[in-house]
Every structure is written in structure tokens, then in C-alpha cells.
Amino acid sequence: MRIDKYLWCVRYFKTRSIASNAVKKGHVKVNGSAVKPSRDVYPMDKIIVRKNQIDYQLTVLDIPESRVGAKLVDIYRKDTTPKEAFEHNELLQYAKKHYRKKGLGRPTKKDRRDLDDFIDESE
Questions:
Q1: pLDDT at residue 108, as a whole number
Q2: Euclidean distance between CA atoms 47 and 50, whole angstroms
Q3: 53 close to 26: Cβ distance less than 8 angstroms
Q4: Separation between Cα atoms, residue 23 and residue 63, nearest integer Å
Q5: The three-state (H, E, C) secondary structure of the chain, written as one string
Q6: Is residue 65 packed enough to be buried (19+ CB in 10 Å), middle (13-18) or exposed (0-12)?
Q7: Does pLDDT of 85 surpass 90?
Q8: pLDDT at 101
Q9: Which residues neighbour 49 within 8 Å (Cβ) at sequence distance 6 or greater?
Q10: Mind listing the pLDDT tens digit for each residue in 29-61?
Q11: 108 or 67: whose pLDDT is higher?
Q12: Separation between Cα atoms, residue 36 and residue 56, nearest integer Å
């Protein structure tokens, strides 16, 4: 089975065209090397999928006939993604929420206090 079709069948991507584009961009590696969407996958292949700043690591256990339900996905793949990858993504999300882009919206109370302190120091 083609790698793009496999990733779509085991529900890593919502559509097959999204899966194909991800493979073309180099976000998918099979056995450590970047591949084309037409590359066939076989049982025991190691796949690394870069999605949402997380490198998912999969092992192909079996090839499905067609797209499978979410409960049946574990029959066809084994997820070996380390927990540190998810913790790192959680920290990134927290950091993004903490800082806002400059110039967007009204200043917060902290921004206003910082501005007042800056003005007082310059005088």
C-alpha cells in the first residue's frame, strides 16, 4: 500500500490529499529516509510523521484493506512516540498563550504599569 494511503487509512490525516502533500513536503520518513507519496509500506517498517510540531513514530504491523475506524487503528500500527515529544508541545502551547503579539488590542494592566514605570524613569 502507498504511504499516503496508509497514513490516511490509519487516521493520521483527514484526507488522502493532505497526507500526500505532507509526504511531498518531507514531513514523512520511512526507515529514516524521506520518501515520495507512491512509496509502498510493508509490515515492520518504521515511519516518522511530523505533524503539529510532534514527531510521531510508528511501526507498521499490518496493511488495512481500506480506512479503518478509530478503535481498530491499533491493529495496524504501533505508536512508539516518546512522552517527551508531547510534553515539549505542551510547553510550546503554554508559552504561546502567555505572550501576545505586540500592537494587538489594548494594553494589559501589566503593559500599562511597565509603560508608566518607563515614563517615570525617563523624567
A1: 81
A2: 10
A3: no
A4: 18
A5: CEHHHHHHHCCCCCCHHHHHHHHHCCCEEECCEECCCCCECCCCCEEEEEECCEEEEEEECCCCCCCCCHHHHHHHEEECCCHHHHHHHHHHHHHHHHCCCCCCCCCCHHHHHHHHHHHHHHC
A6: exposed
A7: no
A8: 64
A9: 7, 12, 22, 27, 28, 55, 56, 58
A10: 999 899 999 999 999 999 999 988 888 999 999
A11: 67
A12: 18
Contact 52, 22 (CB under 8 A): no
Which cell goes with 28?
A: 514523512
What backbone torsions phi and psi does residue 68 show, to the nearest 5 degrees?
-110, 160
Length of the chain in terms of residues written:
123
- List phi, psi (to 5°) of 78: -120, 120
Q: In the beta sheet, which residues pair with residue 110?
A: none
Q: Give the confidence band of 102 by pLDDT, cuts at 50, 70, 90.
A: low
Q: Are 32 and 46 in contact (CB under 8 A)?
A: yes
